[in-house]
Amino acid sequence: NPTYGSSFVTFSPNRLFTPLGSNITDGTFSIPGTGGVAPATVSGFGAVFTDVDLADTTSIQYFNSNGGSLGTFFVPTANNGLSFLGVSGFSEDIGRVQITTGNTALGPNEGLNIDVVVMDDFLYGEPRALNGGAGVIPEPSSVLLLATGLGVLLWRRVHSKES
What we know:
- By secondary structure, the protein is α+β, with helices and mostly antiparallel strands.
- It contains two helices and nine strands; from the N terminus they run H-E-E-E-E-E-E-E-E-E-H.
- A hairpin with a 5-residue loop joins strand 4 and strand 5 (69-74).
C-alpha cells in the first residue's frame, strides 16, 4: 500500500515486522544455538510498535510455559509515531507471546475504524532452559561429572567380577 511509506516511522531503519495475511504474531523462545529445538522461557518481553491509532486494538498477551495466560496488555496509541509495550516481573517466566497488531492485516488504507500497525524491535530477557535444561547441551563440568560417575561404575563392575 503506497500510503504506508508515510504512516510507519522506524526506531531501527529497515527492521519492520508484520505477519502476512493476518494481524496476529505468535512468538516462542528457544535456547540460542539449538536451532529452536530446546524451548526456553524469558523473564520479560517488549516490542516497539509504529502507528497505533486506536486504543485497545494492539496488544501483547503473555503465556507461561504450560500455555496459561499471564495477562493481556494494550499498547499506548501514537498516531504516525512509535509506541512501546513491555512487561516483566510475573511470578512465572514467559514461555510464549501472542501479539495483535491493529484490527486488520496489512492491505487496506487506514480509516476511521481501520488501524494497521507494524512492529519495529523486540526486546526480551535472556532465554533460560525450560524444564531444568532438558534438550540443552550440558556444561563441560556436567559432562566430566557424568563421565567420572560412569567410569567408577564400570570399574566397580569389572573389579567385582574378578573377586
